[in-house]
Specification:
The chain is of the alpha/beta class. It has two domains: 135 residues, Rossmann fold; 105 residues, Rossmann fold. The protein is built from nine helices and eight strands. Bound molecules: 1-(2,5-dioxo-2,5-dihydro-1H-imidazol-4-yl)urea (2AL).
Length: 246
């Protein structure tokens, strides 16, 4: 099967981190690729960034449909464009917050999210309310490290570990959810250090998409997620249209 992992930001180095995490768990029969958004913000840490990341995500999905991809992961913790992607992809699409939070509910009574900037906490809470039962998400904690500073600084692991450790105590939770795709590389070490399950959404979503494809399951086209009604779309000069990609 062909699985495509889409990094919704435009930073290729972060796509490499994401790809490593996805490849580490993908099955031997899976042909996996990781692609970087062709347009939009270098990192996603605001509602504005998130809105501007969606056209690039949809472009990569449209290309995937042309390339015969069987399922997709949207590898940013805000799950940008997830519902829209489901309308245009024939196969399943899973967001990393969605996968991580669902997985966390199978591993303990309550989970804590550790994320990047405090301003992204509202979005994480909104997604927790959408994906998990009331009370499952016990806290969302920010390390105040910008997304693009997560990579390459050895002090980051200590800071995130200290934050997660305090969160487990303060929230009375059993599981840690990593609130950014850029934290994927920290998962193994944090699991060792914290002694609780630490869920990296990139890995969780990769395996979940594989499972759905294996089961022959895809997004229902009966109602809300049917292909969008055909109509004219105006695109700003200099930008390509979705139709160019397919
Ligand atoms: C993210 C993420 O996963 N990718 C990105 O650019 N921003 N999430 C976050 N909470 O900062």
């Amino acid at each position: 099967m062909r699985i495509r992992v889409v990094n919704p930001n435009t930073t290729a180095a972060m796509t490499a981190t994401i790809e490593r995490s996805a490849r580490a768990v993908a099955g031997p029969g899976t042909e996996l690729d990781a692609v970087t958004s062709p347009e939009g913000p270098a990192s996603i840490e605001s509602h504005y960034d998130e809105a501007l990341s969606v056209p690039g995500v949809l472009r990569r999905i449209a290309e995937g449909e042309r390339d015969g991809v069987d399922g997709y992961v949207i590898a940013c913790f805000g799950d940008p464009g997830l519902d829209a992607a489901r309308e245009v992809a024939a196969g399943p699409v899973v967001g990393i917050a969605e996968a991580a939070m669902h997985a966390a509910t199978l591993l303990g009574r309550g989970f804590s999210v550790v994320t990047t900037l405090g301003r992204t906490r509202g979005r994480a809470w909104d997604l927790a309310a959408r994906y998990t039962p009331p009370g499952a998400c016990r806290g969302v904690h920010a390390c105040e490290i910008p997304v693009l500073d997560l990579d390459g600084d050895p002090a980051v692991e200590d800071r995130v570990a200290a934050l997660a450790d305090a969160a487990l105590d303060r929230d009375g939770s059993d599981v840690v959810v990593l609130g950014c795709a850029g934290m994927a590389g920290l998962c193994a070490r944090l699991t060792e250090r914290l002694g609780v399950p630490v869920v990296d959404g990139v890995a969780a979503a990769t395996v979940l998409v594989e499972s759905l494809v294996t089961l022959g399951l895809r997004t229902s086209t009966r109602g809300e997620f049917a292909p969008p009604p055909p109509k004219a779309y105006r695109v700003s000069p200099g930008l390509s249209t979705m139709a160019d990609a397919v």
